[in-house]
Amino acid sequence: GAVVSQHPSRVICKSGTSVKIECRSLDFQATTMFWYRQFPKKSLMLMATSNEGSKATYEQGVEKDKFLINHASLTLSTLTVTSAHPEDSSFYICSARDLAGSYNEQFFGPGTRLTVL
Amino acid sequence: KNQVEQSPQSLIILEGKNCTLQCNYTVSPFSNLRWYKQDTGRGPVSLTIMTFSENTKSNGRYTATLDADTKQSSLHITASQLSDSASYICVVSSGSSSNTGKLIFGQGTTLQVKP
Lengths: 117, 115
What we know:
Oligomer: heterodimer
Number of helices of chain A: 0
Number of strands of chain B: 11
Structural class of chain A: mainly beta
Structural class of chain B: mainly beta
Strand content of chain B: over 45%
Order of helices and strands of chain B: EEEEEEEEEEE
Order of helices and strands of chain A: EEEEEEEEEEE
Radius of gyration of chain A: 13 Å
Number of strands of chain A: 11
Largest sheet of chain B: 6 strands, mixed
Strand content of chain A: over 45%
Radius of gyration of chain B: 14 Å
């Protein structure tokens, strides 16, 4: 159990286009999901906390108009990178928190590799 | 400042050998400590989670220890296999009400197991 999926796993787009990444909790409900960004050989950096039915909370330095987050249901959160530029190329990982678990554990998705040309 | 530091930064061992990875943290208040394995190009996968009252936890060939007094943790891998080659990340969850659910990540230890 406790599986989190992401789609797509890999996307290549042209500069100026928008890209949507989906994060789904497959076998549990997640009122809270998290979006991370990871650069090569670096650890995960939290971008925003996504709460079902309310606005996301963004970390300092993350542009909320650039990275749109929608958490419309208890099993789905989406991250839209608007007007993507080459510097947005990165590995994006989501996680979902299972409140039913004993440790409020976060389960991570497999990640989405975004390449902006 | 909440911080998690890991050592060594990278490690190369021969297949079949054991190794131990270290994690020191300064996180307050402390909720739990987690070790994750992250394969290249994949998301992190949980190995162990420990609260302050747990000082050891095993998951197959992985054994994690926690000393809440010295704020240190270790991950011991026995009889290493080629598939153990990955980045191992120590993550501490803060029990602060303002940071509920936020994780503080170490920089990771990159382990390479050679045949």
